[in-house]
Amino acid sequence: MAIVTTMDFDRLLDQYVADLIDRGRRPATVRGYRTDLRKLGQSLGGRELTAERVTRHLASLTEFAPATRARHTAALRSFLRWYDARTPGRPGLLRLLDGASPRRDTPTHPSPPAGGSTTTDPHADCDGDAALRCIPRQADRDHLFFGLIRRLGLRPSEALNLRVEDIDRSARHLDVPGWGGIRRRVYVDDLDVHLRLLNWREAIGRTSGALFAGENPEKPVSYQAMAKRWDRYVREAAVVSHLGDLRRAHLAELTAGGIPASVIAQRLGLRNLPITSWSSPAQDSDQLLDAWHDARHPADVGKPKSPRRTSGA
User: Fold this and answer.
1) Angstrom distance (rounded) from CA 148 to CA 132
2) Is the pTM of this model over 0.85?
3) In the prediction, which pLDDT does 149 show?
């Protein structure tokens, strides 16, 4: 499988698409990935599939709109992750591609522990990640709101109902209003979300009231308004993704990363996970999540964060 001709690539593409279907990917996603990846096969022209030719193919997409480039990139990364899993004896093309064109939001899987093994889902990216990349850089509220769901696992209603006073002084913990009026403490391990929380709190210039306020600072913007904005980003990315899929993707990442069920249940406010205790020390949970995040995003290691408080939020 070292040399991939156009015909070979077509067969590989058929196998990849069949695998997507077996894994339950949505028909619209499968059709979009197949169409975008056919352009890669045409650009190969019977030559070997290498990182250099992949990056050259990406460079040829610069004439397209940012949303179209994001869609092509999402399809290519998913395919290369699948391809690398089929060719363990070769340098990973996805790793080489990331080295040539690094992205902050590309998941990085930790190395298997000594004496053990881990199973890596070659389709770990959710479709929503492509939509997140379509959010304009200046849309601070949208980046923060959807980031709270994708990176911290909040329910959309929980993110909407956050108040400024629910953020602790260092923006490292949130006091999240959950279902049934039950609040839970959520640790902000993600550096991007942490910085956006700090910046957003300063930008709105309030010490109380709704974090995502509408015209009335005491009332949040409507769910329908945020869902409509999410649908727009999804259309731009040419994927199919519901707002709740972002939270489910975070749950899948935590599970795949070996985070204890009790920590996951506390973080996401779940009552249906088989756990042995609900009293895991908060500091231990924070350290587990920090280690998990650093393994996935090594570029963040050593970057300054606000001090972590060992007591509750």
Assistant:
1) 12
2) no
3) 96
